Amino acid sequence: MRADRLVAVLLLMQARGRVTAAELATELEVSVATARRDLEALSAAGVPVYPQPGRGGGWSLVGGARTDLSGLTAPEARALFLLVGPAASVSSEARAALRKLVRALPSTFRADAEAAAEATVTDPVRWGEHDRPRPPMVDLLQSAVIRRRRVRLTYADHAGERTERLVDPWGLIDKDDVWYLLAGTDRGRRTFRVDRIAQAEPTGEPAERPDDFVLAAVWQEVVDEVERRRSRTWATVLIEERFAPILRDRFGRHCHIDGEPDRGRVRVRLAAPTPLDIARDLAGWGALVEVVEPRSVRDELARIGAELVARHGGGGDPAGQRPGL
Fold first, then answer.
1. What's the CA gap between 50 and 57, in Å, rounded?
2. Distance separating alpha carbons of residues 25 and 152, to the nearest angstrom
3. Of the residues 21, 266, 283, 323, which has the fewest C-beta atoms closer than 10 A?
4. How far apart, in whole angstroms, are the C-alpha atoms of residue 86 and residue 71?
5. Distance from C-alpha of 200 to C-alpha of 143, rounded to nearest angstrom
6. Which range has the worst mean pLDDT, 56-60, 198-202, 269-273?
7. Residue 303 pLDDT > 90, yes or no?
């Protein structure tokens, strides 16, 4: 069950005083059964909501109570503001929302919550790089996700070939400054890079989304599948122990230390999509790395070395023997 939807239910009840499951379903663009389950879940969790049967009935907050964030414990409030605070450093909308959240907290929690919100600043720009603004296409797609409206995309694949797709937008992911759209299509779930979307046109048609859909969980499935494809070839190498952290930083989750050091060297397992990908990453290490297996990676390294010798080796005097040096 989505926490953001439950918060939306409470805010609607606070604003209107009384709502029906059908009204909630329309506002939140879910089924009546889902809206009813949300209301029952809130009641079962101790939130002061109750049903009123009969004509003109519905669901109300007990005694017209106003909902705030008083249900949070002190650690929960700190955790919430530690999460929201960094976003406020780069977004005026987030800062405004943060101020409203602080006012909604019980007074005894406000000081710690404000301190937590200011404890972290997010600087999304890497060293030596310019700030990369969020693609304008993201706002349009986010609106379609929230309103649950289908979108017609003009999408270019990795070869630049464009096709038109009608999709049900499910969610957006920002992964290392690259935005992705997770969507349903007539061929099932698909992931689109936003920077390859040439055009996006909302159709006004309602989008479909699985009732049990959780964006974070589905995205993790996508990540796991991509990482599996990126680790189809494994190689075993020997390297001085002091250099192993550098390899781990380069290969990330596809680098594993295999056993204890032996005479100052460690055995490391590395993975990439192809033997050539591994060889290209290791070529710059020269004799510092010894590839134990597979033979395909050794062959690729030998080929790269031969190409370098053919292009750059021989025919010239070493720098130390040049005239005047």
1. 11
2. 25
3. 323
4. 23
5. 12
6. 56-60
7. yes
Q: What pTM was computed for the model? A: 0.59
E strand spans, the chain: 18-19, 49-52, 58-61, 149-156, 162-175, 178-185, 188-193, 197-206, 233-240, 255-257, 265-272, 289-293
**Residue tagged 């790395």 (tokens):** 289
Whole-number Å distance between alpha carbons of 198 and 221: 26
Q: Where are the alpha helices (DSSP H) in 17-156?
A: 21-28, 32-44, 74-88, 92-104, 107-117, 136-147
What gap in Å lies between CA 9 and CA 56, rounded to an integer? 19
CA atoms of 98 and 114, how far apart (whole Å):
9
**Rounded to whole angstroms, how far apart are CA atoms 21 and 37?**
9
Nearest CA to 145 out of 29, 235, 261 is that of 29
Cβ(12)–Cβ(30) under 8 Å?
A: no
Q: How far apart are CA 56 and CA 183, in angstroms?
A: 39
Interior angle at CA 171, CA 80 and CA 119, nearest 5 = 25
Question: pLDDT (tens digit, 9 = 90+) per residue, 39-55?
Answer: 887 777 667 777 877 66
